[in-house]
Amino acid sequence: METLAINRVNNLINQMTLDEKIKFLGGTGFVEGEKIGETKSLQRLGIPAVKMTDATSGSKLTEDHILFPAFICLAATFNPELSASYGRAVAEQCKADGFRVLLGPGVNMYRTPHCGRNFEYLGEDPYLACKMLVPYIKAVQEIGVIATVKHFVANNSEHYRKNSNSVVSERALHEIYYPVFKAAVQEADVKAVMTSYNLLNGEWVGHSKHLITDLLRNEWGFDGLVMSDWWSIYDTEKSIHSGLDLEMPSSGILGYKRIKKLLNKGIISEALIDQRLINIFKTFCETGLFDEEHQDQSLRKNWPKHEKIALETARQGIVLLKNEDAILPIKNESTKKMALIGENTVITVATGGGAGGFNPGEKLVTYLDAINGIACNQGIDVTYYKNLENNIANADIVVIFLTMVEYEFMDRPFDLSDTQKDLIKHASRLNSNTVVVISLGSGVEMASWIDDVKGLIYSWYPGTYGAQALAEILFGEINPSGKLPFTIEHTEKETHYYGNYLPENTELPREFQGWNRGAPNFDIHYREGIFTGYRWYDTKNIQPLFPFGFGLSYSTFKIDNLRLSSDTVTGDETLTVCCNVQNTSDIDGTEIVQLYIQDIESSESRPKKELKGFKRVSLKAHETKQIEMTVVHIDLSFWSEVKRDWQIEDGAFNILVGTSSADINLQASFMYFNKKKD
Ligand code: BGC
Fold first, then answer.
1. How far apart are the C-alpha atoms of 326 and 555, rounded to whole Å?
2. Is 538 helix (H, G, I), strand (E, B) or coil?
3. Which of 264, 310, 104, 79 is nearest to 192 (CA)?
4. Which residue, 61, 118, 169, 627, is most buried by CB atoms nearer than 10 A?
């Protein structure tokens, strides 16, 4: 297949004039609401234009599209099979209207709750992100849609994103920020990569030969298409030499005159341009885009299936964080009146904004619709209040719906607004049975009000249908099972990013947010290195407000009987870890069992634990299941700054098994040896 494609592509390129070739280095432009990106065409040789669409949680430009719950909600399901279904559905939505390049998945790591695009990503842990990402990409590409993993790399905040220089150690890059991209290439065979807006260690990513050619292509073996993020390259010579193939959305820096000038001066050769075209055309050819009709309207018959997948994602991804006095699920015997407060009850912001933001249209299920749907059948009276009113004192339960704007090219504050905090305080004073539902893609300050409320749910940005799942969880039709894919802090002061996020005392002038270049470049120092998220809290012995991997259920579980297949592992042998999980309650439920590795002694500092396995286990009331997880030798390794390579040291390791990064129930140890002992 590959040789055939290369021969065919070479043959095409041989028939093109130099001028024709140069034009293919850039797209055909961006038109707000109509065209996000498209490659050029050449009728003479039958080369079609290829249309692109954003993004990870749906196909924005597809007419009557379905918006899936935010990608971060998918991460919270810890369910790789569901990720494949979600990816397949998104790809079908794209293909139905002829979009054969999906500008997703977005996979930048969650570093601070401020980042306006966390909702588009998969959380703070590279292992979880990789396990969720790989099936998604494979599924998208099986449908014949090119997945574009983005934004390569270290684009972890949106403030200053076109002016910021992420200063990150080599070890942190290899252990935290690269793994998602590497897995996309090596495990999922992703066909496209999008470079990011920021500089990394002093160089714009779209100019970096080190990142695009040496690392991505030569070291990891990527042989697909590398495109720039929209308007993110600035130097023709550096970009064309870096290995970047396609400037998006249109030819500017890689425009005709500029390229011609370099050719004339002998700074670049035609062969270099041919190589860029080979990467683009080979990717299209292997995807069938030179042969088949791009659009397949018949896929619309699968829309009802997609609705179910969207709903299922929310059912499995919504996280119950607090449930004092078992306030939830709502008991219909004792509940006659329900008060819903806050505009999000009726507006129901379904998504964050920017490239990953969608208009859910008229199909949107609001929280009010969904709750009314269930409450009516149970004879419960539901009243919606936009603002606080004294009447809520008479309700049996009060649910406050809150959201904030998360948006591409701007970050958001960690704190809820004063109005939102006042609402929680006063509502909970009027009525002690108060539950808060937060629709966001990252953490917010909760320490100042969490004790005032009895219940707290993270329902993420729910997409078109996710509000239904929230209602089902409130009423106990669905037992919550999602787990946090990031840590939620009490205060910013206790975190790894405090003082390492924005230049201190900076009040960001609005015009420097996001798009505008021209401002000075700011360094963002990732001083925490590899100690981000739970790795930080463990090392500093700080108990966060809600740990990574945490989420409650209406059931209770017991995990015991941990067994390892061996107490010694040598070379590339694998270790099988077994344990029993028991549902100790009268309610069917699902637990996500997590396996962490601890290197007991190491020549370089290591996190106290790192996630290296997980399993979603569904159990009937009182049922027990034995589960198995596998540890491979790579799971024990770290990136050595000294050796500048991955390394595993001989010695003792612990296997820690639990229900969150802070709730470890079981522990067992084993020895690892690189070579067999004589
Ligand atoms: C975003 C990309 C997106 C592109 C096209 C950029 O602003 O960073 O994620 O794919 O626009 O919409």
1. 11
2. helix
3. 104
4. 118
Tokens representing residue 384 in the block: 């919606």
Provide the 3-class DSSP secondary structure of residue 164. Answer: strand
pLDDT in tens, 305-360: 999 999 999 999 999 999 999 999 999 889 999 999 999 999 999 999 999 999 99
State which H helix or E strand residue 52 sits in. Answer: strand 51-53
Ligand 1 contacts CB of residue 103 (under 6 A)? yes
Structural contact between residues 284 and 246, judged by C-beta atoms closer than 8 angstroms = no
Task: Decide whether any atom of ligand 1 lies within 6 Å of the 229 Cβ.
Answer: yes
Distance 2 CA to ligand 1 centre (A): 29
| Residue of the CA atom closest to atom 12 of ligand 1 | 355
Ligand 1 centroid–CA 23 distance in Å is 21
Cα four-point dihedral sign 551, 554, 555, 558? positive
DSSP 8-class letter at 144: T
Closest CA to 210 of 220, 411, 676, 122: 220
Residue with the nearest Cα to atom 9 of ligand 1? 355
State the distance from the centre of ligand 1 to the C-alpha of 244, rounded, in angstroms.
16
For residue 201 the two structure tokens come to 């260690």
C-alpha 523 – ligand 1 centre gap (Å):
22
The half-sphere exposure of 535 on its side-chain side, counting CA atoms within 13 A, is 24
Report whether residue 54 contacts ligand 1, using a CB cutoff of 6 Å: yes
Hey, which residues are catalytic here?
A: 229
User: Measured between alpha carbons, how far is 168 from 638 in angstroms, rounded to an integer?
Assistant: 16
The verdict on the CB of residue 150 being under 6 Å from ligand 1 is: yes
Cβ atoms < 10 Å from Cβ of 11: 10
For the cut 60, the answer to whether the pLDDT of residue 80 exceeds it is yes
Is the dihedral angle over the CA atoms 222, 228, 232, 234 positive or is it negative?
A: positive
